[in-house]
Amino acid sequence: MAERNEVDWVSRFADEVIAEAERRGSGKPIVCASGLSPSGPIHLGNLREVMTPHLVADEIRRRGYECVHLLSWDDYDRFRKVPAGVDPSWAEHIGKPLTTVPAPTGSPYATWAEHFKAPMVAALKELGIEVHGISQTERYTSGAYRDQILLAMRERGRIDAVLGRYRTKAKPGAVVPQGADEASQEAALAAAEGSGAATEDDGATAAGYFPYKPYCSFCDKDTTTVTSYDEETTEMSYVCANGHAETVLLSEHNRGKLVWKVDWPMRWAYEGVVFEPSGVDHSSPGSSFVVGGQLVREVFGQDPPIGPMYAFVGISGMAKMSSSRGAVPTPADALEIMEAPVLRWLYARRRPNQSFKIAFDQEIYRLYDEWDTLGRKIEDGSAPPADVAAFGRAARTATGELPRTPRPVPYRTLASIVDVTTGHEEQILRILRDLDPAHPVSSLAEVRPRLDRAQAWVETKMDADQRTQVREEPDTALLAGLGDTERNMLRLLLEGLDAHWSLEGLTELVYGVPKLQQGLSLDAPPTPEIKVAQRAFFALLYHLLVGGDTGPRLPTLLLAVGAARIRKLLSA
Ligand SMILES: [Zn+2]
Q1: C-beta atoms surrounding 466 within 10 Å
Q2: What percentage of the chain exceeds 70 in pLDDT?
Q3: How far apart are CA 165 and CA 163, in angstroms?
Q4: For 154-168, what is each residue's pLDDT tens digit?
Q5: Do residues 66 and 22 lie in contact, with contact meaning Cβ atoms separated by under 8 Å?
Q6: How many CA atoms lie within 13 A of 443 on its CB side?
């Protein structure tokens, strides 16, 4: 048992969480938690907020314990600003809950919150991450937190004192690794901002300290100030910056929320959270996690969760993306170019406090090579235990296997085939069949979904100068300077095209033309002299077709280029 539990960071946290849950002795399923704000696109950087507790919760389930992974949607947060690209008239909604702001124009969803939740929910499903989603709007407006809100208001003096211990300390902010490029820094800041917490006021008013902030009953905005509160009757008065005023009974009022630094520990206690990690922006001195740890003990009577700080996740190939698309990528963007197990693996193999980068550039070739190498080592039993564990966490969850590509043809090979065929499925399949004639790929399904990911990568991420550029016009200068032997070889190739229009046929033809030129048959065994002539002939073809010394395999290239264009480019 001990041996198994020390395999990796996930096992160690699972040990701690199980021990802590047993110490608390609630008798209920163990609770791991994450929180996300649907205030805008949910960036790939925020995936660690969900992936870290997912992996721990999954390990706990694998050991046979009941475990719930709560995903709290902070959709009752205020709409803070109108992002670039959205109609400026949305400014009239600033200060309203995200669930009452209309979705951006053209969205199939009714509200801002639903619009930004939906792609994340879909991505989590594809990643095999099972969560129990909680809408904070639903919780607050149903009065679920009534007792906790009344308690916090009763204990407001104590809360104010705890917050006061930290108010003079430095303001927390996003921590970005040294040397991160500008675009990655932007992503880190955007990810930190996503919580919406760092800049929120903590409830201090001229009339005293109140941890509860109502949304105005008249204009729906949180530009309100509590002016008085009577603990006996729970009568609360507030004024609104838009000139509204109201007196309500807090024991019946369901339009408002606790300020973030009180809201978070309240929910730890309400849900009995045992594990919830936090980003670096929430873990510095005076930050929400530290203050929340004090408040949950002193006000809500529970211990704080085990809460490791997780480090920044960067993106390689980011600078290019942000300039071309104006936005940092989301988990859905990553899943377009890599399979779910590979994305899971990136998180599983690194401890939460280690930062790493997710490859959107050509580094993805190496990432996939490493993944395939590990897969082979696991098959032959030579992988170290920690690597076996990480692979297992990536490839399956407690409830089952994630979809995997049956034939793991190297990603770089698939990308090259897609590039040269410009995604033509019939040609892709024909080329794939030729890769390993002894065990031919018989359908594209065998190489999917990896093929689709490689195709998306080529189409959206591959550098223009990496793409195979077939010449538009013949290289007339080169053609004019050719000698009789070369001209004759090109003619033999063009004459043979129609009869050899298959991958195999073209292979025979391109290798055979130098033989025909020397008076031998197409299938004559190659001599050293023939091999030299073949290499020279291939170099000539590359220059004439793609303007370089090398390129994709010639038969592949010829099939992709098409007979008419070949004739145009090679006719001397
Ligand atoms: Zn108002």
Answers
A1: 14
A2: 90
A3: 5
A4: 999 999 999 998 876
A5: no
A6: 4
Q: Which residues contact 2 (CB under 8 A, 6 or more apart)?
A: none
Q: Which tokens is 279 given?
A: 């980003």
Residue 220 Cα to ligand 1 middle (Å):
6
Classify residue 254 as exposed, middle or buried by CB count within 10 Å of its CB (0-12, 13-18, 19+).
Answer: middle
Q: Give distance in angstroms: CA of 154 to centre of ligand 1.
A: 25
Q: How many residues does the chain have?
A: 572
Cβ neighbors of 426 (< 8 A, separation 6 or more) are none
CA–centroid distance, residue 266 to ligand 1 (Å):
27
Mean pLDDT of 430-436: 77
Q: Report how far ligand 1's centroid is from the alpha carbon of 209 (Å).
A: 20
CA of 214 to the centre of ligand 1 (A): 10
CA distance 557 to 6: 51
Cβ neighbours for 388, distance < 8 A, ≥ 6 positions apart: 378
What residues are paired with 134 via a beta bridge? 72
Tell me how far the alpha carbon of residue 225 lies from the centroid of ligand 1, in angstroms.
10
Neighbours of 440 (CB within 10 A): 12
Q: What is the mean pLDDT of residues 268-292?
A: 86
**What is residue 321's predicted lDDT score, i.e. its pLDDT?**
53
Alpha carbon of 247 to ligand 1 centroid (Å): 13
Long-range contacts of 378-387 (CB under 8 A, 24+ apart): 385/7, 386/7, 386/8, 387/349
| Residue pLDDT, tens place only, 196-225 | 454 567 777 777 899 999 999 999 999 999
Token pair 């009065």: residue: 143
